Please model this.
Amino acid sequence: MEYLPVTVDKSHLITIGERLYSESIELIRELVNNAYDADATEVDIKMTDQMIEVRDNGTGMDRGGLKQYFNIGSTEKVSKARSPLFHRDLIGQFGIGKFASLSACECFEVHTQRGDFAAKVTFDKKEWEKEGGQWNLPLQVFSPERERGDGTTVTLLRLTREFDPDEVIRRIVEGTPLKVANFVVRLNGMRITPRSLSGHRIPFLEGTDFGPVHGEIIILPSSTASPVELGIEVKVKQVTIKRELFGLEHWGKVVSRIRGEVYADFLQVTTDRSGFILDTPQYQAFQRVMEKVIREVDGILKRLAGRKEKQKAGKALKEALQRIHRALALNPDLSPFGAIPLAGKGEGMGGAGVVSKKSDRKEAEGDQASGEGKEIEDGGSPVPQKRPRKKSPKVKRLTPNAVIQRTKFGETGVSVCLDDFGEDGAECFTEGTVIYINQQHPLYQREVKKPDTYILNVTRLITQEISLMKITKNPRQAFLRQSKLLRDAFIEHPAG
Model:
């Protein structure tokens, strides 16, 4: 029987390495991860235009370790799932990275020391190709340097590609376990730290049949939202494999506010480590967990948006009332509350601000809106009226979106309540001493999106109701009164 030898061309091996590492910059990340697997506590990267050096203080390699290091497709890391000293999950990849290094440089050196053994292996692309079918690499054995201690230094020489330090940092932040204790990485003397984002944090921990899924989603402030690097980092053994959107792409611009990390070590990774094997029970279980997490994020985002809108509405309402107070003080004949003293900004306003007292909310919910009160004539002073028949208030309960502010015009207190009364509800109305503004009215919804006219619109609605308090039998006269109040509310009068 005749046999045929199976051979692998050297250039083909390098090509495979290049394809597995689609970007040369991934090689640096892989060298750092190899140091992590070797229980290093410190990794120092030096970069110049001519060379890159990655030095660690890990366990180093003896002669057998070096042979294993250059063994293509070794199962060493598969059989040993954890490192011996710190029991770290091993995260180094294919064992073919050193060959792929030759796509970025012409030569690399591995200088290692472990105990009484110290050696250097030089992998020169040109010299190696000259050897034809020979697969041997030159090994130099040295006396160990006691002051150096155990560890490995990999040096890429005669670079054929440029490396951007900022991009190197980004890849290391994403692809190495910088948050683990006892592991520090430096680039040209500067420590690389994990990315820190500020915003509303949503931690989560969910179990599956295959293991836990845990992480943290961050809702960024609108001011720091960015369309760059969208999505949530999915990590396996502390390494980012891919950014996923999990349906966030359908959320519109708000997707730029969502960031985060999710850890699922049980996920099966594709050969090139650029994604996941989707048609597996593991990934399907992971997807179910993330669907639940994203629903929670959606609910929290809506609550945060509602809180922000309440703050915006409260601020606009406060300014509108201050302007109306000034306009009424300048036009006492238009005031249904009697003469109002002209004071400095904010004076005489009572407790203008978002009200949290139960009594104020109670009043806005209709307890004070039974129809009792005094009608005020054009002459000025309130005139006692016969008590009308008690009516059921229109507003019986406010929604959580309600914004209420109470102010004093002279001796009379008035509350203004912004709340949801439906798209078909009145734009505004008054019950007793409470003025209601409908936030769901189409006109209000249109103006709330316009910063320049939002306060004007709120002021318009309040002055409309105040003008109707002054005189209800002549709408035209009420309209003219409102027009004058609006004008004086927004005209800046000279001091004094």
Q: What stands out?
A: The chain has three domains: 10-191, 200-277, 308-490. The longest strand covers residues 105-114. Confidence is low (pLDDT under 50) at residues 344-357, 367-383.
